[in-house]
Design brief:
With 587 residues, this protein is an alpha/beta fold. It is built from 20 helices and 13 strands.
Length: 587
């Protein structure tokens, strides 16, 4: 077995390995740049979490490479997933599943599903959903939640900021004040709130770059920028969650304020700037403290953890809880909350992990080693609570995990099914602390059931359509079989005439790119029945017409094979009756 990902040296092309495990981008680079790693060199390609192939994911390009291989050299493809689509509406679920099958060149009759009983027999136990509802931050926040435009969150927020929660307004005004102070140091400073040149996801990175660039020449401005980045980050949490995580945003400021180095630098006579900044931060936190105990998210989270721990102990199980959040910054904040609670920090140890590809701030980050060590600590029980982002919904497999808590609302059926599946132990529990009215847990579980129903319909309809189609074209198949024996028409002409003779059949012909051999023609021919793909053939040849004829021949021979099989079965049936007439073989 060889493993390969970006930045590594490509594995040798020899007999030292039989299986290659790779991320799709890395494999695509190999397949497109190194002829020794062409798709047809593999007999089987497994795509884990195959639902990604329906989006602009590298899987869709891998599927395109597979479809472009000559049919007789094409590897088998096995796609694995717990959920096929992010959609919640039945019509769109149906459409997305059909598009996914088309992308993978898979017919509905090739779909395989597992029942709940089969899963449990193999050690997978599906916990039932339970929802512990919490109220939204405040009435004003509810209004703001409805007003923000998903397509333009920042500008929508700026238009409606006067209707925001009082603490949000205080934070917004604090940012404006700090920006004014900063302009005394950097005259051409442009606020991140004015215009949309920089996406909100890059606010922190941009400010930190500016601070590092001027740190040696203007340490005062660099310090103000660093403090401003914290306010920007807090505001970003509020805007991107439409005030749903106002509590976390202010807890973040409380967390950095506790760690903040408030030492003033007086050598350049600018201590007043630091005094003003500290006063601005203090004013925001003073506005926040009266609301701290009235906002329910953290209180509900702590209660859920206590209840889950108690429930596990009553069942005689060791408590292992995964907490899922949407944003990396939330993992740090919830860890801070648990550390500050003496009772909870004494009874359960916690830590956090997320993708180490990028940081939250230069001070708030994790390394690959951190993640690996903390997962192992969670496995062996040194950590009982592991806080992680939705990235870990796919692939984080810890059999002893027996509780999953969703801190943030679940956005789609894939997220619901994937996160629920992380609790693998017997009698596991799945707790949802908050939900959106338009994407409630009930709506998402209904969508999950709709997926299963549509899958069964597609499978049964595919089989019915195939058998009905074969029965309806018996005479046409016999005609086609005769043409193959007589060779009076080209294979393309045979297919065209066959489609004219039958109702519901059509053929599609397209040229495919051939990156390694530009002088070779590669042609794909697909036969469909009632717009459902039946047979697909890809062939290569130095002449385009010959490639097309070879692809058509393969499809024609696949079709007439059904005639041959039926004739063989009839001959066998006749032979059986003949032998039973013999007294010696009457038994």
């Amino acid at each position: 077995i060889k493993m390969y990902k970006g930045g590594q040296r490509a594995p040798p092309v020899d007999s030292s390995w039989k299986i290659l495990v790779a991320v799709p981008d890395a494999y695509l680079s190999l397949a497109l740049e190194n002829p020794n790693f062409e798709v047809q060199k593999f007999s089987l390609i497994v795509l884990d979490e195959v639902h990604h192939a329906a989006k602009g994911h590298p899987y869709s390009r891998v599927a395109a490479l597979i479809a472009a291989v000559d049919t007789d050299q094409r590897p088998q493809i096995l796609g694995l997933t717990a959920s096929l689509t992010y959609a919640t509406e039945t019509r769109i679920i149906h459409k997305n599943i059909k598009e996914l099958l088309s992308t993978l060149n898979v017919s509905p009759t090739q779909l395989l599903t597992r029942t709940k009983e089969e899963l449990e027999a193999n050690g997978y136990h599906m916990p039932a959903s339970q929802t512990q509802s919490t109220t939204v931050v405040a009435a004003q926040a509810c209004d703001l939640l409805m007003l923000l435009d998903d397509g333009d969150l920042l500008n929508s927020f700026l238009v409606n900021v006067d209707r925001a929660h009082p603490v949000t307004q205080k934070l917004f005004n604090a940012i404006r004040k700090m920006e004014h102070i900063l302009r005394n140091e950097i005259r051409d400073f442009e606020s991140l709130l004015d215009g949309d040149k920089i996406p909100m996801t890059e606010w922190t990175t941009d400010i930190i770059k500016r601070a590092n660039a001027i740190n040696t020449t203007n340490s005062t401005a660099a310090m103000i920028l660093t403090q401003l980045s914290n306010l920007y980050l807090s505001l970003r949490i509020i805007i991107t969650t439409k005030q749903q995580n106002l509590e976390l945003a202010l807890l973040y400021l409380e967390m950095v304020s506790a760690k903040n180095d408030k030492r003033s630098i007086t050598e350049d006579g600018r201590a007043d700037s630091f005094k003003d900044i500290n006063e601005i931060l203090s004013e925001v936190l003073e506005t926040w403290f009266p609301y701290k105990d009235r906002l329910p998210a953290i209180r509900t989270f702590k209660n859920a953890l206590r209840n889950e721990k108690s429930s596990c102990e009553e069942r005689g199980r060791e408590f292992r809880c995964l907490v899922f959040v949407e944003q990396k910054i939330s993992t740090h904040i919830l860890q801070y909350v648990l550390e500050q609670d003496e009772e909870m920090s004494a009874t359960m140890k916690s830590h956090f992990i997320y993708s180490s590809n990028s940081f939250v701030t230069p001070e708030l980050r994790v390394t690959p080693t951190d993640c690996k060590d903390r997962i192992e600590m969670f496995r062996n029980g040194e950590i009982q609570v592991l806080i992680t982002t939705s990235v870990s919904e796919e692939g984080l497999d810890i059999p002893k995990a027996n509780s999953v808590i969703r801190f943030d609302p679940i956005l789609n059926p894939v997220s619901l099914i994937q996160s629920r599946g992380r609790a693998r132990d017997v009698q596991s529990t799945f707790v949802v602390l908050r939900e959106r009215s338009r994407k409630s847990v009930k709506m998402l579980t209904d969508a999950e059931r709709a997926q299963q129903h549509i899958l069964e319909l597609l499978k049964s309809n595919g089989m019915l359509r195939q058998s009905a189609g074969m029965a309806a074209m018996e005479s046409e198949l016999q005609w086609l079989d005769k043409q193959v024996r007589e060779q009076s028409l080209t294979y393309l002409a045979m297919l065209n005439t066959f489609c004219q003779k039958t109702s519901g059949f059509s053929i599609f012909v397209e040229d495919l790119p051939s990156p390694y051999t530009p002088k070779i023609w590669k042609v794909r021919v697909q036969l469909s029945y009632q717009n459902e793909p039946w047979f697909d053939s890809v062939k290569s040849h130095a002449k385009k017409q010959d490639a097309k004829q070879a692809a058509c021949e393969e499809i024609v021979r696949n079709l007439v094979q059904h005639v041959s099989v039926e004739e063989e079965e009839e001959v066998e049936e006749e032979a059986r009756f003949e032998t039973t007439d013999d007294p010696e073989h009457s038994e």
